[in-house]
Amino acid sequence: MQKKEDITMNKKILTLFVALAASMSAFAQANISPAKAQAKKVILLGGVVHTGNGTVINNGYVVFEKGKITGVGDATTVKFATNDAELVNINGKHVYPGFIAPVNTVGLVEFESVKATLDFQEIGNLNPHIRSLVAYNTDSKIPATLRSNGVLMAQIRPSGGSISGSSSVVQLDAWNWEDAAVKTDDGMHVNWPVTPRFRGFGGRPGFSAESFAERTQAAIAELTAFFEEAKAYNEGPKPAETNTRMAAMAKLFKGEQKLYISANTQKDIVAAVNFAKKFNLTPVIIGGSEAYLITDFLKQNNVAVIVNQPHSLPTNIDDDVNMPYKNAAILYNAGVTVAISIENFWQQRNLPFMAGTVATWGLDKEKALQTITLNTAKILGIEKTAGSLEVGKDATLFISTGDALDMRTNKIEKAFIQGRDINLDNLHKQLDKKFSDKYGIK
Which is more confident, 168 or 209? Predict the structure, then answer.
């Protein structure tokens, strides 16, 4: 028979568990509802319009209706009838196409230290069947912090292993992953086996340059064998039993997906591009810290590069300390299609300021803007609907009181995703207000 003390203790533990579960549930609940569909035509009039394709209209207008842009131009040359539209006077302010954050785990990670909230990596080395989209959490607190800085779309990707799986492009104001999807399974992601570098003398037993080189070659051989087998599987007669991993490669070999390859050194980049060409695939290099050394090779092979984390240290000890800042500009000026990304998830809100840094180190401001708008859209294959302010494209854009690439003046007053006037509140703003009110800070 259970003692009275044990029963009392069990009740206390149960009560505590229920309380903790309730608090976690409350924290996990979304406190910002997605915006409703656009009901009325909107006219943004009088501001500086940054179209995203290099053109700036100093006194411009943008008109959109039913989620699509229907007019962009010089406001001094037209007059609008406003009886059937919402007129927004934006004199002295700036209009930008929504920024696009490529190659990240937004919505797949909530707390790095809580395993139950991590859903970006699968066990195993060859996982082409993994789809990041179905794991995307629209109730995450992270997307709202991105929207507040003008980042309105993202390419979410799985990671880990040699073949991580398929990424998808999402818009950041949705009820569920089906609503969020802009482009489903846009690309397959591969982590290229790293060629080791050794400097100096010494080293631990079993960690020689030769042993590392052997492991790298073995990994490349495994990757090559899998691609060859998958290609034969998808081009041959339909088998009686489906091999899920092999079947997941079908869209890639049909040309419906791009092959995103994470590689940094010039040797690895060249090897990765040649690997893609062998299978007649369209490669996109992610990372590319040494891409500036092989611009001719990249241009000749029409290879786009998504430069990772301009705010970082140089790859090599003898590199120019400012090379991470310059890399994107060198590539862009050489004719390579280049975009900018940031690792992980919560840092994505700083994406505009990475482009701002690039603008300081070798690129015109409007060209730097393209590295997070139109260029990114082209790489992700969504340039027909996103990336610039042009007639016929989605009305995914925002209004800033100042330069959106400068953290001192990036202040987003209003943002629209597919014409929907979205809520710009977020957890950070709520906490700021909470404690500012507590201590009387204005």
Answer: 168
